[in-house]
Each structure stands twice: as C-alpha cells, then as structure tokens.
Specification:
The complex is a heterodimer. In chain A, about 40% of the residues lie in helices and about 5% in strands. Chain A contains three helices and two strands, in the order αααββ. Chain B is elongated, with a radius of gyration of 30 Å. Classes of the chains: A mainly alpha, B alpha+beta. Strand 2 of chain A pairs antiparallel with strand 8 of chain B, so a sheet runs across the interface.
Chain lengths: ~100, ~475
C-alpha cells in the first residue's frame, strides 16, 4: 500500500491542517514510511488473531454517577478568543465545507 | 389518490436519540440538566481541553443496557467506544465519542399494532454516545447558512445520549407513530430519560424511501430531520411519502438527501448540503478500555425490567375488558397507564366506568388546560371516589360532571366539592314525595294522561320535579314515585 500527494492533501484537509508544499512533501515521505511498517505486519499470517484496540489488559473502567464541581462561567470562558452573551463566539459556520 | 398509493410502497427506518437522565454527564462529573445559565456546567473534559481524560459513567452504561434489553436486544460481550471525527463548533473536541462497529446492544425487535394489524420492527442497534453543545446562529434570520456568526453554550455537551436505530421495517406514517409511541412509553417506564420531544431529550430522524411495489431495489433514501413531536413525525412522513410518490409518478428521479421539516408549513425542504461523503475516520477511543459487561450485571438488569407496552396492552384488554381504542389511549404513555391503574384499583366496580370518565370527560378538561393525565390536580383515587358517589345515588351523572370540573380546578375531594356547590342529590323518599305531589297537583292534565295510559307524558312530569328540586332529586326515584302514584 502506498500513499500519494493527493491522499496526503485530502487527509490534511480533513484534519483542517494548512500545510505548505514543503510540509506536504515531508508528510508524504513520513507517511510512506509508516505505511511501509504497517505493510510488514500485514504480511504476517494473522488468521485467528483478534484485532487489538488497546494495549492495556483491562476492561470496564467506569466511575459512579456523581456530580462534581464544574468550572465557573468565567473560568469556562477565560480562554475563549471571543465571548458574547456568556457564550463562545465562533465564526460563521459553513455547513458545506468538506 | 388510492390508485397512486396502491402502485407504491413506503419504507421507513427511524433513528432515535434519547438523552439519559443521569445525575452527571457521560464522561465527567458536570451536572446534567435542561437549560440554565450558559456555560455554567462545564469542565476541562466536556470543553475538550488538552490532557483531560474521559471516564465513562456507570449509570449511563446501565441505562443503555436497560433500553437495549427492553427492546429485545442482545448485549455485546465486547463493546468499544470510538472517536467519530468531524469539525463542528458545538463539539469542542473536534470528535464525538460514540460507538461504531461494536455497540453495547444489537439485534432486537419491537411489536407494534394498529389498524393494519400487528407486526415486528427490528432494532438494529442501541449505542451510547455524548450529546453536543447548543448553537445560536446570529443574523440571517437565525438560519445557519445565512448567519454572521454563532454562539456556543456547552452545558449540554457531554450529556449521555443513546442512539436507537430501527430496521427499515416501518411501512407508513401511522406505523411510525405506533413505533415511536411504544418506544417512548418503554423508555419512560424504565425511568432512564424524560423522553420529552419538545425539549429535545428525545429526537427522531427518519429515513424514508418510496418504490414501485415489488421492486427489488429500495428507492432513494431521504433523511428527514427536525420533527419535534410524534404528531410532527406523522405529518412529515405523510408529506414526504406523498412528495416522493408524486415525483415518481411524474417520472422524476429522486436523490439521496437530507430534508428539514418545517413545523409551521408542514413541508419538508432540502438542506442543500453539497454532495459530500462524510469521512468520519472512526477509530477506537484510546482513552477508554473496552467493555465486557458481567453476565450477572446484565442478568440483574433483565430481571428488573418493567412490563413492556405490548404486554400492558394485552393485559389491559384482558384484565379490564377494554376495547382497542381505550387500551391505546391509556397505554400511549406509561404514566397515563399508571394513573389509570391507580384509579381502577381504588374503584370497587367495573373499571370501564372509570375509563369512560377519564376519556369522555377528564381528557376534555386536560386538553383545554394543556396538561397530561398525571399532571392534573385530581388524584386517581379521587376520580374513583367520584364514580362511587354516582353509583351510590348521592349525585347524578349530570351533577358529577360539575363536580369533576370543581375537582379539576381545586384538587379537592369530590365529597367536598359536592358539599361546597350544594350539589348533593336528594334521595330522601319523603322529601321527593312532597315535591312529586305538588307537581301532580299543578299539572292535572298531564297527570290525567299518564293515568289513562299515556306513559310518554311521564318524562314531562319528571322534568317538572327536577326543576322544582333544582336538579337535586334522584331522577330514578322521581320516576318510580310518579309511576306508582299515577298507575
């Protein structure tokens, strides 16, 4: 499996990363190396091996349904670039943008 | 119209989101509640601050399994949370923690019934995710596409949200109504959500397609959103069904799209989003370990499940001898069913009498006041007492309507309302006889007619006695006395 520049550009767009031409080239090289590594694993006979999603041998980590103190409104909004009416003000939402 | 309908068949699948009524949010300890000052129930986790770690709420997992089991689902032996990646300002992490290919519950079924009979609607999956925040769009009439900017309140962000997906087994707007009503009553009885559609704690989206009868392929799938009540679901589906049928009739091609239902006009319109395949790049949530719910846990939840609506319907028909319409009205909500059962338990006679008073009279008052049965000031036992008062002859049916009105306003016991309004029916034979004698004396002609066998005139005399007694005389006793005296 290989990756081309178009695919890297697509992935960058999905992640909302604005990469320069030089950065795209660097990413292409690095991603190719990563996929090359994955290819080695894919070459193995993995029949009957369950896919592993987590490396910690542990299940069912939960917390009881208890209310904890929240941030104050001022604290919550402290890092907001812009605030209006005690809400985070965000630029116009373009629904159509991919 | 009928001919057109016969040519086509409709296929509907529903996607229903239900906010769970846990005390705290899905992955953090912020309080779950409706409304409130903006951004007062947030923390680093639900604001998506770097380095914060989500820890799942045990109760939310339990509630989800409750819903799944009540819908006849299997509980997954191994279940995972995934990240669903997309950018939207009401979701501060830029991904939603959801479930992908291993939901907590899968493969269930619900039995619905109506004029079209009884059939099963498959439940594909029941999974758990987190709700988003709330956006307000400023400018452009509040429409997102025309607005200048938006404001975000994250109080709701991270509220546990269950998604229920049905199989495309629903064939009409009325079947959809039955399904959603059943689902709402089921979840209400479980006590895991408010299921209030108008407040958004239950949201219904529908996939609708129409095809020629017998066609192998489904028609183009249209997703309809923004239906805020069960009535809206029915209206939107009826509109959409008709629109697609007309389009097919005119030889038009239908496209897969998302349409928005307008409550005011009753019309669906295209959301006009560009043809663009979402690329959510799901991957297992690395901050959370898998779920493998213990069999003992699942077993104890299964045992604690309340009666399902289908079983309740059957029991109401059998136990109380009620007809299908009455059963439907009384079981459309779990709380209504509970209210009725409490009234029936407090009434020694035939429960059908109580049902008649609920449906014929109480519902009228409730509708006018915009209240649900369980929200009325009248307690179930008070209604039972009212019907008992009629049975004992203390008040007539006509007086009882006035008493019910008084009870509805004040929440007072029927006995108290009767005394206050001076409505007590006179059943004292001596008192009634005196009035009867007066009336006979004053209406010699009419009395004569009855004596000579013209019994039709007796009604007039009864009316005179009732008038003289200001409606308080027991009409049955009046009738009997007149007949005896004039025979």
């Amino acid at each position: 499996m290989s990756i081309d520049r178009k695919a890297v550009d697509h992935v960058a767009r999905l992640a909302r990363l604005d990469l320069s031409e030089v950065e795209l080239d660097v990413m292409l090289t690095e991603l190719q190396e990563i996929l090359g590594h994955a290819e080695q694993i894919q070459a193995l006979d993995l029949d009957g091996v369950e896919p592993m999603s987590h490396s910690v041998p542990m299940v069912n980590s939960m917390r009881p349904d208890e209310v904890k103190l929240s941030l104050t409104q001022e604290e919550a909004l402290a890092n907001a670039p812009e605030v209006e009416d005690h809400r985070f003000k965000v630029p116009r939402i373009m629904e159509d943008e991919g | 119209m009928t001919q057109v309908q016969d040519l086509y068949e409709t296929t509907v699948g529903l996607e229903i989101h239900v906010e769970l009524s846990t005390a705290s949010k899905m992955f953090c300890g912020c309080r779950v509640s409706f409304g409130g000052d903006p951004n007062t129930r947030t923390c680093p986790v639900c604001l998506g601050m770097p380095g914060s770690l989500p820890v799942p709420n045990e109760k939310a997992i339990e509630f989800t399994m409750k819903i799944g089991l009540a819908l006849g689902c299997k509980i997954a032996e191994h279940s995972l949370f995934h990240r669903k990646n997309y950018f939207y300002p009401d979701m501060p992490k830029n991904y939603q923690i959801s479930q992908y290919d291993s939901p907590l519950c899968h493969e269930g079924a619900v039995e619905i019934s109506g004029d079209w009979g009884t059939h099963k609607v498959g439940i594909t999956r029941v999974h758990l995710e987190e709700d988003t925040g709330k956006s307000i769009h400023i400018g452009g009439g509040g429409r997102i596409a025309d607005s200048d900017y938006s404001l975000e309140d994250f109080n709701r962000a991270g509220t546990p949200l269950v998604e229920i997906v049905s199989e495309p087994d629903i064939r009409s707007a009325d079947e959809a109504r039955a399904f959603v009503t059943d689902l709402r009553a089921t979840i209400e009885a479980l006590g895991v959500s408010d299921v209030r559609m108008e407040e958004g704690s239950m949201r219904v989206d529908a996939n609708v397609s129409v095809r020629l009868k017998g066609a192998k392929e489904f028609g183009a799938k249209v997703e309809v959103k923004n239906m805020n009540s069960i009535r809206s679901v029915v209206r939107a589906l009826e509109y959409e069904e008709e629109r697609q049928r007309k389009a097919l009739d005119a030889g038009e091609m239908l496209v897969q799209e998302t349409r928005h239902f307008d409550e005011k006009t009753g019309v669906t319109s295209s959301m006009r989003t560009k043809e663009y395949a979402f690329d959510y790049r799901y991957f297992p949530e690395p901050d959370m370990v898998p779920f493998e719910p213990a069999e003992t846990w699942v077993g104890s939840i299964r045992e604690s499940l309340p009666e399902r609506p289908a079983a309740r319907r059957a029991r109401f028909a059998e136990e109380y001898g009620l007809g299908a319409k009455d059963v439907e009205v009384l079981t459309s909500s779990f709380k209504a069913a509970q209210w009725f059962e409490a009234a029936a338990a407090a009434y020694p006679g035939d429960a059908k009498k109580v049902v008649n008073w609920i449906i014929a009279d109480l519902f009228g008052l409730l509708n006018e006041a915009g209240l649900e049965l369980w929200e009325s000031k009248i307690a179930p036992s008070q209604l039972a007492n009212l019907v008992t008062l009629i049975d004992s002859g203390k008040i007539s049916g006509k007086q009882a309507k006035l008493v019910l009105g008084g009870m509805f306003e004040t929440g007072n016991d029927p006995e108290k309302v009767v005394a206050e309004k001076g409505l007590e029916q006179v059943s004292d034979a001596g008192a009634i006889e005196a009035v009867v004698d007066e009336v006979i004396a004053e209406n010699a002609d009419a009395a004569g007619k009855v004596r000579s066998g013209n019994l039709g005139t007796i009604g007039f005399l009864v009316g005179q006695v009732m008038k003289k007694s200001k409606g308080k005389a027991n009409p049955q006793m009046v009738n009997e006395l007149l007949r005896r005296k004039l025979s």
